[in-house]
Amino acid sequence: MKDSFNREIDYVRLSVTDRCDLRCTYCMPATGMRFLKKTEVLSFDNILFLLNRLAEQGIKKVKITGGEPLTRPDTVALIRAIKEISGIEKVTLTTNGIQLVNYAQALKAAGLDGLNVSIDTLDPDEFREITRVGDLKKVLAGLNKAVEVGLPNIKVNTVARGELTNEAICEIALLAKASKIHVRFIELMPIGLGKGCPGKTQEEVILALQQVYGELIPFEHRLGNGPASYFSLENFQGKIGFISALGHCFCAECDRIRITADGCLKTCLHMDDGCDLKEALQTENKEQLLAQVFTAIQKKPEKHHFLENQGDSRLMSQIGG
Ligand code: SAM
Ligand code: SF4
After folding, report:
1. Residue 254 labelled as part of a binding site
2. 129: domain CATH number?
3. Which residue, 62, 85, 218, 279, shows the most beta carbons closer than 10 Å to its own?
């Protein structure tokens, strides 16, 4: 599938739930969240019908996201089933890691091709403050388990919050030294509660790292499916990556669409665009589904407009990141 700017669309980010066991301050309010009813969330069968049809049209890569995907009881079974779909080459997962220790082995057995674990700080008190309820020990146990069972392509994602100190940046980067974990710093995006939150730029993070670990050497190859740019540090096994949608816009290479947990197709993270696929999925109406998908992809915007307008009114947990 190609959009009107000749970009090949072969990657779908699929949110399997809008629920989460954390409440990160830049992503979800402390209280008052109104979650989708079970009947509103795409079922196992809806998802498989959708991905089978998308794979027939050239989708090759699937990222499972949320909310927190590991709060959905059938997520591992879903991953196993998606791995069986002809044409799907890579299935990856992004998680907050809270329940990972219980699932790492099963995810490996299901054939997961890559795992992103979100960790914004290695200070347990600060972690609790950011996530409001999270226990960092559980996440680190999950990360260690993922390494131990041999899950491939493990990445740690850290949102570059304004409060992130240079010491904290260097401490998190160390995760990439001891084992082949890649650590990526994600620019804070003005979406949902992220609007108005202060963030650090890629250049500020690089400077902090360079002062302690020496020069960051650009790594020219692609790692995984995403838009990150990577750097090597001497004596580090993993790479240091940056995903900077504002400072280093990568829309020209955008290859993705998003599906929310209730079956809305979004062609841009920021835009209030797309369409509701739920009816076509529930009735398994292939013609209706593909007509909706093709029309939406033709309208995929050339780039986000973070700085010019308000964009989507949804929270990040309702989109999937
Ligand atoms: N719960 C899972 C997790 O935390 O990895 C998956 C969903 S979460 C919405 C996906 C990613 O989006 C996380 O790495 C999170 O830190 C990031 N995120 C949430 N709000 C953001 C924002 N405003 N700017 C940048 N990244 C954000
Ligand atoms: Fe939950 Fe992930 Fe949002 Fe944090 S960033 S509240 S873990 S969905």
Report:
1. yes
2. 3.20.20.70
3. 62
